[in-house]
Write a structure and sequence with these properties.
Elements: H1 3-24, H2 30-46, H3 50-57
Helix pairs in contact: 1-2, 1-3
Amino acid sequence: MNVERKARIANGALVLASSVLAMTVDQRFVWITLLMGVSLIFSGAVDFCGFAVIFRRLGSGPRS
């Protein structure tokens, strides 16, 4: 599994988890969902993904 795919899975998992937490625990968890959405828009606009950088530094894929 490549780094970009792992980054997309991590983003999706965080959005899903924060949405469920916002509905069940406290509405302030919706801010995590909002920030992840902004992060994904930024990532698509400038072709930079923070999760991909983290995964590469952890040794999870090639440094390209």
